[in-house]
Amino acid sequence: MSSIAPAAIRARLESFADPAYKAFNAKLIPNVDPDTMIGIRVPVLRAFAKELRRGGADAAAPFLADLPHRYFEENMLHAILVGDVSATVPDAIAQLTRFLPYVDNWAVTDTIRIRALRRADADIRQWLDQLAQWMQGGHTYTIRYAIVALMTDFLDDRFDTSQLQLVQDVDSDEYYVNMARAWYVATALAKQWNHALPLLQDRRLDPWTHNKAIQKACESYRVSAERKALLRELRV
Question: What CDD domains does the entry give (predicted)?
Answer without folding.
Answer: AlkD_like
